[in-house]
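Preliminary data (for renewal application), iron/sulfur cluster complex.
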Amino acid sequence: MKNITVDQAGCIGCGLCVSTCPDVFELGEDGKSHVKDASKCSECNCQQALDNCPSKAISWGE
Ligand code: SF4
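Predicted structure:
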């Protein structure tokens, strides 16, 4: 299964991925995006979120 991840060091907290895939990403208290449920990736636009991330902080893990 694809396992989407966010590089915490790279994320600038713009919120774009949260807007694109609210079931998968959420902004934490640290102002960075976190993956809350990677299993929802098949139902949403995670590839779009990955492509549009301004800091290229999203990637597909193993
Ligand atoms: S789109 Fe990229 S930089 Fe913006 S909140 Fe999501 S992971 Fe962070």
